[in-house]
Amino acid sequence: MRGFLLCLLVVIAGKWEPGLNVKKTYEYKYEGMVNIGRGIPNLAESGVRLTCKVKIVGVSGQTFLLQVSNFNFEEFNGIPGKDTFNASPKLTNRIAAELSKPFMFEYAKGRVGDIHATAEISDTIVNIVRGILGFFQVTIKTTQRVYELEEFGIHGLCLSTYAIVEDSHSQDLEVTHVVDTNNCREKAAIYRGMALAVVNKLSKERGNSVISTVRYVYTLEPTVHGGLIKKAHALERQHFSPFNVKGGNSKLQAMKELVLVSVTDTVAISPAGPMVSRGNLVYKFVNFPGPIPILMTKSDDSVPKVTTTLNISQNLQMIMRLAEANIYQVDSLTSEDVFVLFQLLRGTSLEDLEALWIQLSGNDEHRRWFLDTVVEVADARVLKFIKNRFKAGDVSANEAGQSILIAFNHVTAEIDVMELANELLSMPFSKSHPLLWNTVVLSYGSLVYKYCSYEYIQPCPVAVVQPLLDLVNDGLKRNNDLDMVLALKAIGNAGHPSSIKTIIRFLPGVSASPVNISTRVLSAAVQSLRHLAFRDPHTVQDITVSLFVQRELPTEIRMLACIILFETKPPLALVSTLTSFLLNEADMHVASFTYSLIQSIAKSRTPDNHLLSTACNIAMKILAPKCSRLSYYYSKALHLDWYNDDFLIGTATEVFMLKNDANYIPTEVVTKGKLHFIGRILQLVELGFRAEGIKELFGKGLSTDFEDISFFNCSLKLPTDKPLLSAYARLFGQELFFADLNKDFIQSIINAVSPSSEKDHPVWKMIENLQKGTSWHWTKAYLMFETSYIQATSLGLPLEISKYYHTVITITMNATATISPPLNNRMGRLLTSDVTLVTDGFAGYAKDQFLFHGINTDIFQCGMEMKSKNVLAMPWEFSMKMNIKQNTFELDLPPCKKKMDLFLVKFDVYAVSRNIEEPSLAKMTPMMPESTEAEVDLEPAKRNVTSRQKIEKTDFYNPQAKVCAEASIYGATFCVESEAKRSHYIEEYPLYYLLGYTNFACRIQPAQSNKPVDGIHIELNTGLTKYPVSVRQLLDTLKRFSKDATDRLSPSGLSSSRTSHRANVEPKAFNATCEPAFTMKALAISGNNRPEGYEAAAYYNHVTKMYNSQLFVSQVGEKANWTLCTSASLDKTQLGELKVITIHLRWGSDCQSYQMSVKASTTHLPEFEPTVKAKMHWNTVPAYMKEVGQSIQKYIPGIAFLLGFHQKPDRNAKQEVSATVVAATADRITMKIKFPEFTVFRQAIPIPIRVTDFEEHQQYMGNTTLLMHREL
User: Fold this and answer.
1) How far apart are CA 433 and CA 430, in angstroms?
2) What is the three-class DSSP state of 260?
3) Would the CA dihedral through 1052, 1056, 1059, 1060 be positive or negative?
4) What region, left, alpha or beta, does residue 498 occupy, with left being phi > 0 and alpha being psi -120 to 50 degrees?
5) Which residues pair up as cystines (predicted)?
6) Which residues, 6+ apart, have CB-to-CB distance to 601 below 8 Å?
7) Which helix (H) or strand (E) holds 953?
8) Closest Cα to residue 320, out of 376, 389, 353, 367?
9) CA–CA separation, 10 vs 28, rounded Å?
10) Residue 1019: exposure state from Cβ atoms within 10 A (0-12, 13-18, ≥19)
11) What's the whole-number mean pLDDT along residues 444-450?
12) Start-to-end C-alpha separation, the chain
């Protein structure tokens, strides 16, 4: 009986198990379609559709032949429901030519095996065939209605869920198959350009930026040979957002369908010819870097010689055109063409690159452009090219360093690339210059890090890091600190797990046989563990804890070990152990630093510190009695962060200040930032300064009187065995640069700026070149980042999410200097001569950023593309005259003659379609098209852009703004313009705030003026002061001065020299009792008319405990009487008593129209809390100021509530606002602010610094100048 049941089950299972009869020919109709967009009505989308007939013919028991016919390719670019698919005959013919060739595949029991095709068929076409064959990969278990299993498919080895239902009427089997593409052990997906962004599991749990679902539905008919697929349908959806997909996203929807047309007996089989295996059903990626998804270029590979000549010609023309367009300015119209150049270079052979170098290296502009862009070839070719340059020695050390730095950090890390990079390490040219050698070694370490990130064979082979291990061991043998530091820094960049054994050799108390090394080398060894803190946290925890508990180690080393320890995210038990140890810590610097770090992390809100912050919170409360009152004299750590779950974005900033008991000057200062995004953590810029020898630079102590510091003489006594100051810079966690400031460098700087410098010094040569007239130009084209995520789709087409960010920087300067009287043999003569400088030039950049979401193959592209451009333009043209001894400065500027954008940000989102056969006919449709319907919807939004409710109800809205500030006197207008177009649900989905057209511009343009402006003249004179007798006397003096200045600057007086003007005017204008600290004039010169503009004079007076200053600004012109009068005074009585600052402001006609005042006071009396009071009072102010004040006052209650303040109605002074701040405790304050109609107040507000800190610091330093801290 059991045997009978078993046989019955086998028969039933075989009835439904998918299979094909080797003697039959099956004909199917296939259709596949994919579209990408927002999935919202009236917004543009992009897509493609593939249709064909598929014939499957049995060849042998498990081998079948697949033939494709009647293929058709169509593109869609427009608005769904209004536009239709358009045929692309040329691309159809190209794809059909390859698809018409036969394919062989193995198939048995619902499993697709190896796929065979002729060698000339491209991987793109084979992947399309994989999309067709994916329908035949199905597992049927009739003993279960719902079941899960892990199986291979086009998406990789992923978890699948099946649900089976048998139709009692048709006897067919309905199968639903869902593939969880987010749960794949071996996923057909790759990341590129993301090696330096560390994946964080806790961050990923907060949300996703990419979500995919795939569902298949089959209808199977039972046959004697198994289940026959009559009809199959697949639906794949992907949601992508640069933030959290819950907050709005771009959607990809792929559908495909297979319908059985006929089943016939096989008559004959045509010979297929020789074939090669092309792999199994899993999607195969085309070589990276593939085509840039924002452009499409075509080459004729069938004629190699023609292709070579064409590539060289195209590259030459492009480089020459870009170089010419960006000599005198940044050409924002051609900056996007740099991406075309990248694509052309990536399709160029090494031999053609060498040919290009020969033709371009003779011209400085063309040479620089080629070297800046060839590094983006991003594979072994660029390293071979650099290797050839090193062999030939035809590049400078500066050029070589820039090329190595970018190429090593942008190249795809493969085994052949690692071998070439290793060869560069051993080349003599690499060691020809110290900075070049540093760059080569550090960049090699970065390349090792990338290789180990992308290497799927774990562990990462030790051979790739062995050259760096050999370097550090060699430096140890020779006891060379610089070599050891360099090698350890490179090992830190590499983060190779196998390097731990070598690093341990340099760590006392950890190594079995410790070595005698300097603190500087020991510091580099500890910091080299920073990447290993993520890759091997447990080992690093053991090492850093061992270092931290060794009290005999230098304080700095223990604190560095503490930093690395917390980078490993230690568990609660380890934090508790550390806390217990700190309770008995005698070194207050270590205790203060560790406590402040624990205290900062306890407040962290980023996902990576979720568990650690809890542990630190407990530790902080235990350590507070001992450490909470330690002042800023001791070492400190600060960690500040922010994170938003809706956007999956956060930032973190850390500052470490390391000191020791030997000197209160920090021995090391480190600042760094991090960016949290889409489940990854990217370390941004990190700057570090080590001041081991800075104490010797200033002697035993710092004087408060600058004149007492013998700076120029102390350098002769500086030590030669250690650097005074060391600095390093890291980007994305990789150290790119470090340098030492030693005695020789200090001496060279002193000699350069010394007045006694003679003609043989380089500075003297620079001055001589300026007198002859000099020009300088520099352009840098740089791909700042290129990242991509590529994933297979069920159609066999690659879905790509790519980000590109490129910049072109241009600086051009022309200058000529005149010195009168001429210089003698000493440079000190420059300080007493009249120096005139005439210069013009340009500085600016153009930055292009692209974000692509869609299908990207080597023959066609479709998707959504966000295109952004940021332009900064700063042209200049002026003549300047100055005399340092006389404290005079003059500047002449030309008038504004044309409209110019100084700053521009512009971006939009497009639906794009491109194909290789018609690259010039690429389609880019704005996601929000310009249409009559859209304009109708925009009108309500334009009228109510400030109404939140109206925006929520409006599908489309178009806010616009333009604000201009016109300086008609000077003939110029500065304008800020903005415009945006948005659509749909922006209140619900934050992403949609960013999707749409955006334009923001700051521009300067000529002003509408009755008097044409010929030029602008600016003068500045500084000198000693005498306090004015009275305001009335001063106003009279200013009027006389204005009249005299106007007469002198009229056309009849312009022929006289500026020197004569100063000599004649100033004695008339000011008497001995009214001498300004400085005067400034800004006048517009206008033909035969009198000059107009403004002039200012400032005065300063210091009497015992009283500091007084005044500033007067008056308008210059025929009928001008506008004047601004300000006075400020600081009254400092004896220590501990009242300090009062008073400011009076009056302006208008003779300073009589409007007036207001501000008064602030501080008190710190014995037995009373320190108090700060401030009050602003106004009598008469302009109407627009009243409107602004009233508008701001409306928001005060809401802002106060959000900040935790309480509010009560009150009848306070009507034209006055006052505030009182009282230090209630050492770390908390009480604040009360009075407005005319209400009062807001809050008690016990925490502050980041402690009031007692200043007292402790003051007592320790014994320096009364630090009392200024209390006065603030």
Assistant:
1) 7
2) strand
3) negative
4) alpha
5) 158-184
6) 566, 609, 612, 613, 616, 639
7) helix 948-953
8) 367
9) 29
10) buried
11) 95
12) 98
pLDDT of residue 514: 76
**Is the CB of residue 920 less than 8 Å from the CB of residue 300?**
no
Per-residue model confidence as pLDDT tens digits over 369-417: 999 999 999 899 999 999 999 999 999 999 999 999 999 999 988 899 9
Contact predicate 403/361, CB 8 Å: no
**Are residues 98 and 52 in contact, defined by beta-carbon separation less than 8 angstroms?**
no
Residue 637 sits at φ, ψ, to 5 deg, of -130, 140
**Across all residues in the chain, what is the average pLDDT?**
84
**Beta strand extents in 927-1052 (DSSP E only):** 956-957, 960-967, 972-980, 982-983, 998-1006, 1015-1022
In b/e form, how buried is each residue of 1001-1017, taking b as 16+ CB within 10 angstroms?
bebbbebebeeebebbb
Tokens 């698809």 locate to 99
Dist CA 1005 CA 1015 (whole Å): 15
Retrieve residue 890's tokens: 């003059």
Residue 1037 φ/ψ region, left for φ over 0, alpha for ψ in the -120 to 50 degree band, beta for the rest: alpha
Nearest Cα residue to 865 out of 785, 802, 920, 934: 802
Which parts of 603-689 fold into alpha helices (H)? 610-627
The identity of residue 510, as a single letter, is V
- CA-wise closest residue to 652 among 615, 677, 669: 677
- Is residue 982 classed as helix, strand or coil in its secondary structure? strand
Q: Is 1262 left (phi over 0), alpha (psi -120 to 50) or beta?
A: left
Distance of alpha carbon 1126 from alpha carbon 1123, whole angstroms: 10
C-alpha separations of 930 from 36, 564, 854, 996, 998 in Å: 20, 55, 23, 12, 14
Two tokens, residue 6: 């078993």
Show the CA angle centred on residue 781, arms to residues 775 and 786, nearest 5°. 165
SS3 at position 595: helix
Are 430 and 394 in contact by the 8 Å Cβ rule? The answer is no
Beta-bridge partners for 1206: 1241
Q: Which SS3 state, helix, strand or coil, does residue 624 take?
A: helix
Residue 247's pLDDT band, with cuts at 50, 70 and 90, is: low
User: Is 489 strand, coil or helix?
Assistant: helix
Helix axes 555-567, 588-602, angle to 10 degrees: 20
Burial of 909 (0-12, 13-18, 19+ CB in 10 A): buried
Residue 740 is which amino acid?
D
Overall residue count recorded for the chain in this entry? 1272
At residue 1242, φ and ψ (nearest 5 deg) are -155, 140
Specify the pTM.
0.85
Max Cα–Cα distance, the chain, nearest Å: 129
DSSP conformation letters of 817-834: EEEESPP-SSGGGGGTSE
- Of 787, 376, 734, 362, nearest in space to 527 by CA: 734
Of the listed ranges 215-224, 426-435, 816-825, 831-840, the least confidently predicted one is: 816-825
Token pair 């806790």 in the structure block, residue: 202
Q: Are 449 and 528 in contact (CB under 8 A)?
A: no
Q: Is-contact 1177 1156, C-beta < 8 A?
A: yes
Q: Which residues pair with 272 in a beta bridge?
A: none
Distance CA 1203, CA 1245 (A): 10
Dig out the tokens for 857 from the structure. 């193959």
